[in-house]
Write the structure tokens for this entry.
Amino acid sequence: MPKELEKQCQKCKQVKPFSEFFHNRTKNDFHNGICKGCQKKVNRSNKSGQGQVKPA
Ligand SMILES: [Zn+2]
């Protein structure tokens, strides 16, 4: 039985080590379903209201 030290990001579909996922106690495996890189993008896109500057 292989050790589950890696999981697939649900967003970018890449298999990454758990260290690349933020902890989330609400998840079955205690890690977010998406990797840190994707999480940052999600957090940024969620910030609507200020700094909405579209590049020309
Ligand atoms: Zn990802």
Q: What stands out?
A: The CA atoms of residues 44 and 50 lie 11 Å apart.
